[in-house]
Design goal:
The structure is a single chain. The chain has helices spanning 4-17, 21-25, 41-55, 61-66, 70-75, 78-88. It is an all-alpha fold and 89 residues long. Helix 1 packs across helix 3 (41-55) and helix 1 (4-17) packs across helix 6. The model has no long low-confidence stretch (mean pLDDT 95).
Length: 89
């Protein structure tokens, strides 16, 4: 069962990618932004903007992602983003 923040992250991902509700239903906390969704840098930037608009300017996804090692970046999941948001907001 996703947390409330994970659900918001998933919905914002749906908005960023332009996908539908069926696509959203297939997402879970372990869904990886790169490995499963193949988000490009523009989509990650758009997600960051939406997260900041929703949760406040303390949420800086671009800064968070920039500090990750390549392996961590490839494994970055919805749960990871939600945990970051919960800690930053």
């Amino acid at each position: 069962m996703p947390t409330p923040t994970q659900s918001v992250v998933a919905e914002l991902l749906r908005e960023v990618t332009g996908e539908n509700a069926e696509w959203l239903a297939g997402l879970g906390p372990a869904t990886r932004l790169d490995g499963d969704l193949f988000l490009d840098s523009l989509e990650v930037a758009a997600l960051g903007e939406r997260l900041a608009a929703h949760f406040g300017p303390a949420v800086d996804l671009a800064g968070f992602v920039a500090g990750l090692e390549l392996e961590a970046l490839l494994r970055l999941s919805i749960a990871d983003v939600a945990s970051y948001v919960d800690g930053a907001a």
